[in-house]
Amino acid sequence: MGKLRTFASLANPVFRLYSIAMLLPMLFFVVQRMTTPLLVYRLTGSATLLGVVAMAGSIPQVFSSLFGGVIADRMQKKHVLLIAAGSFALVSSGLAVTLATGLLNAQTWWILMVHEALQSSLMGLMIPARHAVIREIVGREQLMNAVALSAMGAQLMRLAAPAAAGFLIDAFGFTVVFFILAAINAAGFIVITFLPRTGKIVPTTRNALQSVVDGFKYIVHERVLLIVLTFSVVGFTFSMPYQQLMPVFVDDIFKVGAKGMGMLMSASAIGSIAGGLIGASLPNRKRGLLLLSATILVGLALMGFSFSRVWPLALASMIGVGIGQSGRMLMSNTLVQHHVSDQYRGRVMGIYDLDLALVGPTVYVAGLVTEAIGVQWALGGMAMLLVLISLWTLLFVPTLRRLE
What are the pLDDT digits (tens) for 251-297? Predict the structure, then answer.
């Protein structure tokens, strides 16, 4: 396996253990990302409240991502991952209990806002460490390959997990699924304990806020990082809200329920796995052009999905979305980590992960637009804007286009 470029980084035994350790948290994120929006929509029937709940997670994540980057630069990243896994297990258990006791219902949907805020805060604290530790494990030359394989692990979870979650929801209800999510995180905690420590912690006299400011100053003075991060935010903001709006499509447009939602997410995963395999096999060249091309593909595929009323075409479009998203995230992540200094890696990855926090405001706006003109034009309009912005960048920002 180590002789094949596609799987080169798996020859590293520590990266193999890291990949196994991350499969369970990835499984949790995939199922939770599908289950929570669907539960919100089933309880409230409101696209606007989908956006409200998403916004509740976005606001605290803005701050937790920034300080998560500081923590990643000051703590062993293994310890950050352990604390996060244990906390996720407790939060998921709490929501499952509110469902089991009937405390969570149509009148108390705000509990989901609290749940989303807690989950997103923890995610913001954990993800910079999860990203930054890869470079410490595999080094610079195998970074893109390792990032691609790590992302592909998440997509393998998305291949079967959403469909399985959909069947479980339809058969046993949301309570069972959230108890399962708690168990997944507990298992993840156990596996992460076997990871060795990586990297060196550089002592600093700067307080956390000063360290965050230093990270922003560093990015402003590094033109390549600034361009890549800006384009990454644009791509993420306009391409990711489809996941939160998916319940509207499956219940109101296609009328296929939770099982159909799982099938759509699995179709996207198939595309992402294909994109990950391609990305893992590519040499370290023309990554800026590949980032732009992948983002354009995402926009075109989302347009196809948004305006489709034919189920097979919707599934095919989701495969295209998966290929494009996999390439977009791989290239942006690799370019950022390739060009960042080691002493700023955690903080820059924390700022990079701020795009996760921006999804909430975008979903909220998309929810309002959905109530006014329909979900197809809301999502389709965002996809059109993404294509236009990407084409403009391709033509008029040569610095990004020429990045290797």
Answer: 778 877 767 877 887 788 788 888 877 776 776 678 888 888 889 99
Tell me the CA distances in angstroms from 382 to 60, 127, 214, 235, 372, one per residue in order.
24, 26, 33, 10, 15
d(CA 16, CA 285): 25
Residue with the two structure tokens 């370290």: 284
- CA 376-299-55 angle, to 5 degrees, is 65
How many angstroms separate the Cα of 313 from the Cα of each of 76, 275, 287, 322?
A: 46, 19, 30, 14
Q: Give the Cβ contact number of residue 231 at 10 Å.
A: 22
Cβ atoms of 39 and 169 closer than 8 Å: no
CB 19 within 8 A of CB 79: no
Domains of the chain by start residue, with CATH: 9-194+205-401 (1.20.1250.20)
Q: Which of 358, 26, 304, 394 is nearest to 366 (CA)?
A: 358
The 10s digit of each residue's pLDDT in 9-45 is 777 888 888 888 787 777 777 777 777 877 887 888 7
pTM: 0.68
Residue 268: Cβ within 10 Å count = 30
Q: 102, exposed or middle or buried, with CB in 10 Å at 0-12, 13-18, 19+?
A: exposed
